[in-house]
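Q: Sequence in, structure out?
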Amino acid sequence: MLYTIGEMAKKLNVAPSTLRYYDKEGLLPFLERSGGGIRMFKDEDFEYLSTIECLKKAGMSIKDIKSFIDWCIEGDSTIEQRLESIKRQRESVLAQIEQMHETLNMLDYKQWYYETAKKAGTCDVHNSIKENEIPSVFHNAKKRAKGLTVIKK
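A: Exactly. Output:
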């Protein structure tokens, strides 16, 4: 089955302009066009497009995505390059996830901090709170907030 750019964009949950941009940047070498030059997508193109979207969301540059797609088009001789690219991007995503966990922990700590201050009617309450009165889950976040060294688990 063939899809127009609008139909494929809807299927991918992206704007048609996104697919036009990908085409302009050379990410869609597999793309066919009608006699009138209209972009026509096939069912098989969905996997390429899904991969492009995944790599983009994972923070890969357009240049690196283009290399990856070119390797896919080249075939089996580039399996090693594709595997290494995916491994590097996976490590990058894991680092981002770790950073986001730290960010979430800091936000949770600050939420607790301000809830405690709200109950007391002042932020000064934290000047008298002893370390053992702070939930242990927030100890590292408090240390980070104070610029102290955090012990990794």
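The longest strand covers residues 39-42.
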